[in-house]
Give the backbone structure.
Amino acid sequence: MSNERKKLFKKFEKEHYTILVPDMCPIHFDLLTHCLEKDGMHMVIVTPQGPAAKEEGLASIHNDACYPALITCGAFVDALKTGQYDLNKTAVIMSQTGGGCRASNYISLFRKAFEKEFPTVPVLSLNFSGLEKERSLPLTLRRSLEFLHCVVYGDFLMNLVNQSRPYYGEEKVNETLNCCLEYLHRQIGHQAFYQRKKNYRYLLSQFKPLEPPEKRKPRVGIVGEIFVKYSPYANNHLKDFLISQNTEVVEPSLSEFVLYCIYNLINDHTLYGMNRLLNGLYKKAYKIALKETRIAAKALEGTRFEPFEDFAEIVENAPEVISTGVKMGEGWLIPAEMVSFAKGDKVKNIVVVQPFGCLPNHIVGKGMIRPVKERYPEENIVPLDFDASSTQVNQENRLKLMLANLKD
């Protein structure tokens, strides 16, 4: 780590800076921000409300930018304008994938948007790709392992919530979820955080009274671009609407995207001879992350809660319809998840979400529906586009057409 970066982040800790975080995965980001707060940073998750974030995004960056960039930038601008934050002691942070997605370049867009009104607010990066060397969050081995555990714990809780909420209601499920999050907050920074089996037993004990019934409601899977897939604000509360229509929502785990990114690095070596020096390290990271997801899946044995699809099986399903060399955006992962839903024979209805301006995900999402349907004609699949001007009513009407053909 460079001396400049050390000084910068020491300054944030010493001067009690507030670091704003975009709200993508509410459960996961709650845990991740608590990890950073244990290190002395004050993190605030910015959850947009109403149309302001979209309007500020349209005003702050050019309208050719993709929808996730527009919303995220707009949410930050709207928050900074509220007067709640000391602009001399506030920063914002964004993740960067380092791949072909324009998300790798959001940061330069944000800096340009902040130049006039918020010149004192630095834009920081969270990435594992070596980008933004002077302004990226230092990722030690300890912090990286903590982040991995936060992602898998977040997946575990998201899975329990999704399988409970259609049967027991939002209020009761959220009360249980908050109890579980508080339990994990107390563990972060201590050795107990790594006692996964014990912690999974505790989380399951809290959700035991909310176990789903044997006869389940029709299930609807959601796949697509990562931000729109998970962010309730970005997808106009898609999950809430589907639950209100008497269905059970199935979301892929965030771990799948993490494993997808690591797998692509290994695959680059296999297909193109790249990453020769680091390939062994990537394989080790993949093995560790995959093992963690399997520990979580094993914890659900003997319950009516069902685990996520094993990532190794998702990889095996991809070549049915697409090469694993296709890795722009969510690449081969989206069609592979659709095939996994179809082969699992439990998710017969799928919503494929794509944001405006994300050409790769239109190709591997909407564009791959036909080959998936050719192999699995019984699947009920609908693509759903999102942009700053799309109305929730129009999207719900399109979903109702899908729900009219709902398959149990």
Q: What stands out?
A: The first strand starts at residue 18 and ends at 22. The mean pLDDT is 90.
